[in-house]
Amino acid sequence: MEAQNIYHADKNHSDPAGLFEPLVVLEFSATAKRSSVEWLLAKLQALKTDGGADLAVRTLYIEHSSETMLLVTASTERLLLAAEMMEMKKKHKDGFHREVTVQDIENFDGSEDLGSFFTQAEKQRLIFKEIENIRAGELDQHVPGYENIKLYPGKSIIKKYLSRRILLQIYPVHDSEALKRLGDEWYQPHKAFSRQPIDKIQKYFGEKITLYFAFLGLYTVSLIPPAVIGVIYFVTSWRSVYREAIFAIFNLIWSTIFLETWKRYCVELTYSWGTINTAVSKFEEPRANFYGTLGRNPVTGKPEVVYPKWKRALRFYAVTVPVISLCLFVAFLVMLFYFWMQKWADSLHEEDKGWISFMLLFVPTAIYAVIIGILNSIYRIVAKKLNDFENHRLDSSYENHLVLKLILFDFVNCFICLFYVAFYLQDRAVLKSFLSTLLVTQQVIGQIREAMVPFLFLHRRSKQLDIALKKRQVLQENDEALDVDASVKKKVVVESSMDKYEGTMDDYLELFLQFGYVYLFSSAFPLAAVWAFLNNVTEIRCDAFKMCRIFQRPFSEPASSTGIWQRIATAARKKQMLRIFKRPARDTMQ
To answer: Is 138 in contact with 132 (CB distance < 8 Å)?
Structure first.
């Protein structure tokens, strides 16, 4: 009987005070035609049996900018049905995580209060999936008001709206009180060396983002042993060819233990969250920007957009490969330019061994470090355009190909000079000097970007807040959101102007490059792990600050591991094994 009572609960979608509590916001373009907005609004509110999402919606119209926002929430009944359809797992009273079913709801932990059975992040993810699942029907030929924007039966309507910029963004609303409590435990200065509140991060931001912070935290702690040994190496005067070999062997053992420890820790976390066997691709839809010709699905027989694999392969080999090769050649030329600058600085120091000429010895490397960062940023733009040009169908495929492109170029751009010095010139003194200057310069630049820029963003956010408040002041009093609290309306408008979090890819890429410096070359510069440790202690709190204060709240995503990044780190470890057993160095390495 308890399972049946949920169908009569929480029908007003409100808090105890009777006010509407939005969880997700859809922001339309100022140029969006009214008919397209009203049509999507009707779809959101329509029953599932009529092809809708059966969600509760309020309309917020900002007269100042002619923008329309839809504030969306859902009843407990609707969320439970969505969780069952999505096969979401929650902790069962038998101690295991099982798929939520309405009939068995009373046997799940927390089912005594169905209003709080799902976390807010889970509610928002369920609503987002329901919005994505609104499909075009057989009679829906095009978006109302846009005859040139065709719709195909069975395809997601919301993705079409996003790709054609009718809809600017969809974002979940922050929970101000929960966010403040999380921030007090996470990024405050007095918490710099405290454990991160991993479980609370997971409940607020979801598994994918939490796994990044868990990985960063474990990696930072694991840097302590090589950092301690690096300090010992730095202060001792023992000089031998075996000195670097011993450190390299230690790095191999350390990295193996670290990666295996992370695998175990990752399994423990995902098991406790119930996402250890999550298959995200099971619910994956074609990308919003995927294009092609109208064909038919060989399984369902329904019309859908198709794009031949041979065309994608042709674009990859005829365009992507030559462009990437050109970019790698440019990185090689920049390396040669660096050696020319360094040779010029060395000649000046030979002529006049003063303080000025001595300081000039480090200028070429510092300039080279800055150029590396600039080239990485430029290539990121190029790689994204190449990925768009290849026209991948799924978001996972798109992201994996983008990651491989970025890793290839960034690895070559950042490490080509180090490998050249270590294996071709085989000059230990030059390698140590170059690596120390390069690493320190990049860490300083990174700290400026990670620690200083967020505060500049916060200053900009205050200006955005003023603009948002002005917008709020001119909201029409006769809008349909009369049962939405004024403070909630203000928060919704403010968060619409916040920066969007683009995902964990750039954060993992930064850690990958840092891991390469420490793991592959710290035997030449023992203090590399010390610099990395100090950098990461600051980065954890800066990233936490940005997640809580700078960015819009991202939709939570389930994850069972760090995915492709685990395989990349393992590949880097195997490369070090080859380096250790290279033939003995020449005299310049003695």
So the answer is: no
